[in-house]
Write a structure and sequence with these properties.
This protein has 919 residues and is an alpha/beta fold. Helix 1 packs across helix 19. GO terms for molecular function: ADP binding. Keywords: Nucleotide-binding, Plant defense, Repeat.
Length: 919
Amino acid sequence: MESSIANLLLGKIVSILENEVALFSGVRHEINEIKLELTTMGSFLEDADRRRVHSKTGSAWISSVRDMVFEVEDIIDEFTYHVNKQKQLGFFPKVIRYPGNLLLRRKVAVKLRDINQRIKSIAERNQRYGGANQIEGAYMNFGGTSLNYDPNWLRNFSESSLFLKDDDLVGIEKAQKKLLGWLLHEEPRRTIVSVVGMGGLGKTTLVANTFNKHIVKQHFDCCAWITVSQQYGIQLILKSMIKEVYKKANEQIPENLSSMSYRDLVETLVEILQTKRYLIVLDDVWHINFWHDISVALPTNIIGSRILLTTRMEDIASFEFDVINYVLPLSPLTDEASRNLFCKKAFASKQAQCPPYLDPLARKLVAKCEGLPLAIVALGGLMSSKRSLAEWNEIYSNLNWELSENDKFERLKYISLLSYHDLSYRLKQCFLYCCIFPEDYLIKRRRLIRLWMAEGFVEPIKDSTPELVAERYLMELICRGLLQVVTRNESGRPKRCKMHDVLRELALSISKAENFVAISDVEDCGIRRLSIKAKEHGIKAGKGIGKLRSLLVFTVDDISQSSFNRLPSGFKLLNVLDLEDTPIDELPGELVNLFNLRYLNLTRTKVKELPKSIGKLFNLQSLIAEETQIKELPPGIVKLKNLRHLIAYRYSVDYLEFEYALGISVPSNICSLERLQLLSIVEASDNLIKQLSRMTQLKSFHILKVREADEENLCASIGNMRLLRYLMVMSCNEDEILKMDALEVAPPLLEKLLLAGKLGKVPRWFNSLHSLTYLYLHWSRLREDFLPHIQALPNLGTLKLINAYEGERLCFLEGFQKLKILMIWKFPHLKEIVINQGMMPGLEKLDIRNCQEFMTLLHGWESELPDLKGVYLEDVSSKIMQQFCAAANVDYQPTIQATEASIVEVEESKFEWHYKFWL
């Protein structure tokens, strides 16, 4: 396993030696010699990794090589650091003759010669004791051949899976029926239900599917899902619970939530839950102490409230929580259910049908999983890439040899390990890296992709961007069951993922053995990547800090701002610094000396400005400052020639108002950054608009404060952005006309379009938006009927309209065949919505708010919208509310007091209703 880590580093080092050879003048002989050694070593290590070396001699040899590679990386990074420091001081290109550098070169040459000699000594020692022969013979019963790898299949399968929904659940019907009975029973006393079982049995999957059922949401006044995990911060959990409960109750979240004490948090929860029938899910409880911490905040009312928890621990499930307790022990799947789940994963491209010639082996493989859903999914994902009977026999033979023990948990870990071993060495790094996030953490797709790029895991492929290659990596991990999709976006792409705790434990154990990732303090010596949970003391230096390349900080509870205003000086070789959600308000001065830095994440920090000398970070690829206090970028930003992702913006308080998004001021020559892919959200200026024509490489572009006079230049520039997928344009104020008519044809790949500002007329290029999946018109206040201009768009899935139309009728007469989400907010004159037969056949969500004149019910909507799952009404006329309630067979009871809101959730067999009516 160590070989894959070392091999990736070898590739990085050889690339540095080839691309930056000018920096190493004076040590070229040593460099060329070590490059040859490393290249040969890399080929041997990749072969060893593919053959699953696990002999003691072979592992010791690989471990020695890995340590040597780490040392070479340190030497080269250190040398590059000093050379670039001299360059910044103005000594370059005369760097070779500078006395300080001559001394540095001599030191580097001595170190490299020593490394070369030690590499040869390792090889000689390995040959002397027969290590090479042991490596050649170590196949772990795979018959001496490598597993076949079909990259074309992988690409097709991964990309097609972007648009697949998650696997249908199998084998949970009886357990779910029992669970629903306990939750929906008429028993008025508070009841606690525990779902217990070992990791990988599907506890969370069962509970999540039950929690999301409409009949459950209808039964309770408010519901909240809280993930607990082994290490938890009680105040953070209480705050999350308050947010969930208030959100589900359609009430304003307390403004002082962030500063509340434990006592305040408990009192706030008790106050809102006391009079409500609530359902609280506590997922993944490990310690009974957690119940003692949380129970005081959950009132014991007698109106049918329920608490549902999942745990691996039998003693927690059997604890006397309350007057009424139920325990649901989860059992492994039956043989039939196991086979059905396996086939869904292994034969997804064949409608889950197993070919007859593979059926006997499929049954034997499923039997090895002993009914564990996680193992079945992992094994099915592995077998989905195997086509021949010989490959299936190899996997089965290996399983038959290894799974001699009867311990189910060990069986689960081994099957997961087998799936891990089948990955390419780059995908191994991507998988292991996911354990750097805390347990049960929801990982955003884009964040993970940018981190992988910064770490150097993404293979450079001709005619493809690193972002696309990394997304394919992500999809393969998902297809193999090594990552779980939690939410998807409008296009079906994963939006947030998580790592099952069993797989995370596996990744952590491998990472620890290889010094790949550590989840601890900075005391660990030699660690390259570190994930820490922020506490009051901030970030401490330790003896291993000089080796650190990546630091990710995650907040647990409220911590002081001053704790994070300095970084230890030893962080000089850092590649990744992720401070998302930490309460830092000022960046430390040492930051600009991190010349190796490729990724800087300041999202939701309280940072107000970036350092003026930020241009020193010339290796930076991603600068992410979402929802910070930064209003302006320093001129030095244009020196970041490797920058690919620049994101900095804030949101205003009221989403319904015109200026809901706030951008940043940027230097006009930002357009000189030729590698920039994403620019969000910038404020327009005369010079910026004129220079935008240079940014033809952009894929995502967001610009605010556009004037009428900018039309020609702006549209000409957008027309040349042929790779653009996401475009946002906002006028300088709500009365300024947003003129976009000079754009003749929209960028062909455009998927998301957001126009904010008054449109005099519908842009004529709307009918060319053939790739568009998401359209948002904000404060357009159109007078003409705009629907005929977009009704034929073949891929439109989401249509969001806020104050977009001043007419009285919206008529969906044709088209909209793929529309799933329709949101109509703040239409002051709208009285009627007409939907012709056959229109919007796939509509799932209809959301109408702040339309006080809306009076006429959609004719025939019950039968014409067969896929409709949710109707959301807020601030509409009492007449329309009565009509909807009548259609749903619900009594309409308006609120007595003018200041109160009436919130009703109604559910039939296929609908979920929400309405909020103000008298």
